[in-house]
């Protein structure tokens, strides 16, 4: 069944072994450095694993092996943790890729435009029915059963009725139905914003879209769809054979679409975007993809890293499970590395209407299975969504156009940081957030994915205003501005359970 899915998806990216099946494993050394990665690689190979990627920045490797591998490596000298990052086996490790494996390849000025790929992205025809929101499931523009064919596009909005931007605290200019948030006293200069790089870790970004052609920086973009950085031209673009592949383009448009009177305007028009595709060929955001993307973005100088998804295959990762504990530690190391390099890590809170600070039910995991129903797990608050509930991450809930918590948004006092426009999936195009869609089109989606993108754009503005500030200080500025604009009390934006510090206000 797995091979059939891969063929239908348009590619078989794994090397078939002689009658064997493999799982992917993350091996974490006790030392979070290059020496640690070397030790992890040596122990993995000694146990029969095939190491396909090293992460020397954080002392970790990605290995493929058969069953029983984790038990052989756990407890070995210098090894801190080992965890299987998937539950369904594959025929073998991923195929070799030219240009993969070097996290710094994209910073080489001699690399040019990286031959191999054109600038044309085939688009899918819209079915023309309804408006799809993301309140029904994961943070990716909707539940997985719809795919991109279920997403209706909308006409070019001409930068009109951008309620989501108006909610950030600016009034429209005279004769202009859309507020220009970067006009006026205290706004960053255009050249200052152009110096800021933000990373969109998602399903890929269509950099041929008119709103995004000038925004996406090809030298800082890559694919991490199998845990290895692939810097070849166009690798960061959506894979149209995988459902939900338009999601990243929508998120990128919210962050930094050009303000030119057409389409939509982003929160930070003029910012540079590193498009980092995480969505793999089977529609998964595995932990190694996240680690790869986070390290890539950090090493290329991103000041904000947007994460509008949750890690597969477990919606919540519990510390008592050794595999899930290892995945939490792995993504946690990558987040800390990125924050140490000056990036604010922003993540969606999720669209399950659940209190993240209370016991709850997970009815979707593991979501990479090829047969049978998911487990119905009752999990406690110690079980976390990755990367949104990791320390230091700015976790974002969603509000509708009236500023009230969206019905689908996750929440939890002490578990969420800020609220931002996410929209209402049942409110039509007017109630959702309209943004870019592959093929030069536009779509209306709703979800905490959209909310997180607004915060990422605001971080870009803050970084342009304060280029010498570190990640903690930038995040604190957004929190302080939101708190100052929100009265305390229940059912208003000072309610920390749903709003965190408050509703996002664009810094000036």
Could you please describe the fold and organization of this structure?
By secondary structure, this protein is of the alpha/beta class. 23% of the residues lie in helices and 15% in strands. The chain is built from 12 helices and 16 strands. It has a 7-stranded parallel sheet, sandwiched between helices. It has a 4-stranded antiparallel sheet with strand order 2-3-1-4, sandwiched between helices. It starts with a helix and ends in a 9-residue tail after the last helix. The N terminus is likely disordered.
Helix-strand blueprint:
Layout: H1 2-8, E1 23-29, H2 34-46, E2 50-55, E3 60-65, H3 69-73, E4 79-84, E5 153-154, H4 163-166, H5 190-194, E6 197-202, E7 222-223, H6 247-256, E8 272-277, H7 287-299, E9 304-307, H8 322-340, E10 344-348, E11 360-362, E12 377-379, E13 394-399, E14 418-421, H9 428-431, E15 433-437, E16 441-445, H10 448-465, H11 471-484, H12 496-499
Parallel strand pairs: 6-8, 6-9, 7-8, 9-10, 10-13, 13-14
Antiparallel strand pairs: 1-3, 1-4, 2-3, 5-16, 11-12, 15-16
| Number of helical stretches of at least 4 residues | 12
Strand order of the largest sheet: 7-8-6-9-10-13-14
Largest β-sheet summary: 7 strands, parallel
How much is the radius of gyration in Å? 21 Å
Pattern of helices and strands: HEHEEHEEHHEEHEHEHEEEEEHEEHHH
Through-space gap between termini: 54 Å
- Assign an overall shape: globular
Give the overall pLDDT as a whole number: 86
Overall helicity: 10-25%
